[in-house]
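FIELD: query
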Amino acid sequence: MCLAVPGRVTEIEERDGTRMAVMDFGGVVKDVCLEYLPDLAVGEYAIVHVGFALQRLDEESARRTLGLFEELGLLQEEFGDPWEAAGNPAAVEEAGR
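FIELD: result
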């Protein structure tokens, strides 16, 4: 499953002419492209899908959504280690549901 997940910008930098951010998704940190939201600033939240920040989001909505995703196990499903899951038959079975 591929989700659009809210994250908080912790750093911004230019990489090879592309504006990139380091974003925190409830404890999981990933690099994200800011080409669709070039004015996004450190401390702001955005919905991210397949590595692209797509829409600005207020902090309350982002925290509420991250909390729900965590309760449902969707953050682990989205950001978990696929090699670890592949070595765990129970995790593979659960992911197939």
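FIELD: remark
The two ends are 11 Å apart (CA to CA).
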